[in-house]
Amino acid sequence: MKAVIFDLDGVITDTAEYHFLAWKHIADQIHIPFDRSFNESLKGISREKSLETILVHGGAAAKYSKAEKQALMFQKNQHYQTLISKLTPKDLLPGISRLLCELKNENIKIALASSSRNAPKILERLEIIDDFHAVVDPTALAKGKPEPDIFLTAALLLGVSPAECAAIEDAEAGIAAIKSAGMFAVGVGHERSMHAADLMVGQTCDLSLDLLNEKWKQHSF
Ligand code: B16
Ligand code: MG
User: Fold this and answer.
1) Site Important for catalytic activity and assists the phosphoryl transfer reaction to Asp8 by balancing charge and orienting the reacting groups: which residues (predicted)?
2) Model confidence at 161: pLDDT above 80
């Protein structure tokens, strides 16, 4: 294992909750039912795809013009940015700071594969941006998760082959992307959405370099 590639929302910090609050505000405004269970289906997917999914769910796919959709996404992002402006290093999920230290000590490369355009800002707020050797720009990709592009680009930027990478995700779309990139997939969360992962942990505090190495060795590509 030469590199570990991280998802951001739901793995490094709990901004998944902020995405939920910001989308819920929009959904309420346009009278579309929106709860935490439906929000699960938006994890890891782009802003555009998320809005489309909400509109289809509410039977309103054809109701809004392109300009109106842009305005809804703008409004959601404004709300989201207000929420993330309050992030501090205390908002790192448990065990992540320790894991980053363990990886750095062993000279294992670290990259970020987040679908979020707000990712660099969030890494700065959490004061961990200098730990990352590469941060993929999701706007430069042809296809988002569950396609493998974002993880393959991370490996390319790090100068390692996909088979030498482990990647950590909290979303089903993310695990699918890691697997189709030919990488070792680590899922954080509930079994239901993580069944395709090579290693599954309930919470981020269960992650450690020792555990990754141990499961990596047992795994055959
Ligand atoms: P933004 P990840 C994803 O981040 C989120 O899980 C997803 O809910 C969000 O819609 C997407 O980023 C885009 O975020 O609106 O900030 O560009 O899980 O890939 O780190
Ligand atoms: Mg995520």
Assistant:
1) 114, 145
2) yes
State pLDDT tens for residues 132-151: 999 999 999 999 999 999 99
- Residues of the binding site for Mg(2+): 7, 9, 169-170
Q: Which residues are identified as catalytic?
A: 7, 9
Residues with CB under 6 A from ligand 1: 7-10, 16, 19, 42-47, 50, 77, 114-118, 171
**What pTM did the predictor assign?**
0.92
- The percent of residues above 90 in pLDDT, for the chain, comes to 91
| Mean pLDDT taken over the chain | 95
Structure-token pair, residue 74: 């703008």
Contact indicator for 207, 168 with CB cutoff of 8 Å: yes
* Residue ranges matching CATH 3.40.50.1000 in the chain: 3-13+90-218
Which numbered atom of ligand 1 lies nearest the CA of 49? 10
| Numbered ranges of CATH 1.10.150.240 in the chain | 16-84
- Tens digits of per-residue pLDDT, 92-139? 999 999 999 999 999 999 999 999 999 999 999 999 999 999 999 999
Distance CA 127, CA 94 (A): 15
Rounded CA-CA distance 38/46 in Å is 15
Query: In the CATH hierarchy, which top-level class contains the domain 16-84?
Result: mainly alpha
Q: Which CATH number describes the domain made up of 3-13+90-218?
A: 3.40.50.1000
Question: Buried (b) or exposed (e) across 23-51, using 16+ Cβ within 10 A?
Answer: bbebbeeeebebeeebbbbbbbbbbeebb
